[in-house]
Task: structure prediction
Amino acid sequence: MDFIGADCAFDAADAVIFGAPYDSTTSFRPGTRFGPSAVRSESFGIETYSPYQRKDLAEDARVHDAGDLELPFGAPDRALEAIEAKAAEILDAGKVPVLLGGEHLVTLGAVRAAAKRFPGLRIIHFDAHADLREDYLGVRLSHACVMRRCHDILGDGRIWQFGIRSGTRDEFAFMESGHVKTEPFSAETLSSLSFPEAPPVYLTVDLDVLDPSEFPGTGTQEAGGMRFADLLARLLDVFARFNVVAFDNVELSPSLDPSGRSTALACKLLREELLALRRRG
Result:
């Protein structure tokens, strides 16, 4: 089953969705492996038309859904290799990879591929958690460490974080030392973010950046989060002003929200992101 409106052939597509149903390093409540399939099936509860952007996913975008990867649980290094290979295949074809998680560690595989193709890559990161630990219980490949591993690739000053409201003392010290640019609690400064050139940007959205009152279907909830309308406005701004070459939405755990409202929100957000994406030249 494809995401609604994402029925374009691969060769004709501008963007390609693929799922990484992986949650082997989840530190609290698991279930994000079911996120990609839930987003596809529940997408048929929304329209392809966006009244926010006055565009229709079936008519005004060219999106291919490549389905889910088969990933080896318990072997994060091999799972990341498979994700990197798929993202590289999509990038090599001149298209935008759209990764559906899965836990946040899956982002690392796609970032590896994007950084190899685009040496000047930046990351814009929305999340409740800093994800900057050097390790989690001695493990360096963990969803709690994903942004630290991305920093290992990109270096200082190339990761911007928004909405962060949870982390260790060491993580906040790492932020405050200037290794990454972080706006805790909100994304008010995003509107003033600019680059002297137009570098390629990887956008990663951990859906727990949203407040649990709107998005309870995630494994590690954090009170005090963003509202859907604010997050949508910020993401539309990112797509309008920056050269987004790949993006992901991660950490939906549908079984943790029997009401289904978290999955419905994730579907709507993905529709808007796909419609906001600049068409490749």
Q: What stands out?
A: The chain has a mean pLDDT of 95. Helices lie at 35-42, 57-60, 76-92, 106-117, 146-154, 169-176, 228-241, 261-276.
